[in-house]
Amino acid sequence: MFYTMEQKSIIEMLFPDAGEYNLMLGSIGDFVEKEILPGAAKIDKEEIFPRLNLEKSEKQGIMAIPFPKDYNGLELAYPLYIAALEMLAKGCSNTALQVSIQGMVCEGIRIFGNKIQKNDFLKEKGLVEGKSLAAFALTEPCCGSDAKSIRTMAGRQGDNYILNGTKTLITSPGEADHILVFARTEKGISSFLVPRKSPGFNVSRVIPKLGFRGHRLSEVHLDNCEIPANNLIGEEGKGLEYAKRILNSGRLTIAAIAVGIAQAAYEKSLLYSRERKAFGGSISQFQLVQEKLADMVTQINAARLLTYYAAYLRDKGRNITPEASQAKLFSTEMALRVCDNAIQIHGGYGYTDEYDIHRHWRDARLLTIGEGTSEILRLLIAHLALKQ
User: Fold this and answer.
1) Packing angle between helix 78-91 and helix 93-112, nearest 10 degrees?
2) What is the rounded distance in angstroms from the CA atom of residue 256 to the CA atom of residue 306?
3) How many CB atoms are located within 10 Å of the residue 311 CB?
4) What structural domains does the chain harbor?
């Protein structure tokens, strides 16, 4: 069953009357297992953007789960979205990553956009449902974690803004319809929704990388890129504050993706350990293999609890910066350990393409870097704890 008993138990703990929720999540699990999982290895091997998977996911309503009905969302509890995203990542991490980015951008528009922008982008252009796709562009060649130092400029000219600068390490901007771009204005860092077909918007190069090969990690060049003034999200000068709020959402969904990737690696290792014979029996009988399996499942369940707890607090209106940061830190580092152990359990086969194990490790490796490195998150978590 793709919807695990551990997930079901947490949902029942958070929502005592969870019958309909479990039916919905069970149905999503069946969908992912039948429609998404079979093509995941091919997407990675051939570096295919998972557009077809995203179209299928849109029809299932996965991206719309947490958003208001006013914008064609389903307006359901956030832990349900996290559970669905975990299963999506277990089936195909490349598909889940785009859903995560989509959710971040939609959340930014929902919180900071005006009524016209929310209706236009979230509803009419279909960002909430996934009918059009989004990308997030903050990082620049000069600065990643040091977002205050970005150099891309945006100047007001009549009814338009003109953007100039370079963004790098951006996930699939060439496949997105709208890109949330952060640029410096007279009043400070601000946020803009830039249509991909805007004049002066160019994907200048694609950067080869280790994992998540279904996405093109790209550099974007803005050369007198002209966009309507009403594509400014919120107020000028508050973009960095907005980015921090948006990244809370991203950290939570990245944590869910990490749990899903780890679950996939663990389940493959469990099956392989039962089937692989050595020294007269299956390797699952070896105490050192059992130790690895025990650590893997324990750490996955701990990460899942942290992540769903943060999602639950979000629905209660809490500031989840500490909890989201902790969930992201623990879950992503956990996924890396679990996937490393999965390779070890598979022995030499774990290093080959045949058993499709190292794909999970390669994908997990990104997660400790994107949406806040582990080092930055440790500083943030400590800072918040000391501030209390």
Assistant:
1) 150
2) 10
3) 28
4) 5-124 (1.10.540.10), 134-237 (2.40.110.10), 240-387 (1.20.140.10)
- List Cβ neighbours of 338 (8 Å cut-off, separation of 6 or more): 262, 265, 266, 296, 299, 300, 364
* 3-state class (DSSP) for residue 182: strand
Specify whether 175 is catalytic. no
Instruction: Provide CB contacts within 8 A for 318, sequence distance 6+.
Output: none
* pTM exceeds 0.85 for this model: yes
For Cα atoms 313, 319, 323, give the angle at the middle one, nearest 5 degrees.
60
Give the CA count within 13 Å in the CB-facing half-sphere of 43: 24
- Per the CB < 8 A criterion, the answer to whether 137 and 147 are in contact is no
Strand partners, 233: 191
H helices then E strands: how many in the chain?
12, 10
- Catalytic position from the list 226, 333, 371, 375: 371
Integer CA distances (angstroms), 225 to 157, 176, 370, in order: 12, 16, 26
**Per-residue pLDDT in tens (0 to 9) along the chain, 388 residues:** 899 999 999 999 999 999 999 999 999 999 999 999 999 999 999 999 999 999 999 999 999 999 999 999 999 999 999 999 999 999 999 999 999 999 999 999 999 999 999 999 999 999 999 999 999 999 999 998 888 999 999 999 999 999 999 999 999 999 999 999 999 999 999 999 999 999 999 999 999 999 999 999 999 999 999 999 999 999 999 999 999 999 999 999 999 999 999 999 999 999 999 999 999 999 999 999 999 999 999 999 999 999 999 999 999 999 999 999 999 999 999 999 999 999 999 999 999 999 999 999 999 999 999 999 999 999 999 999 999 8
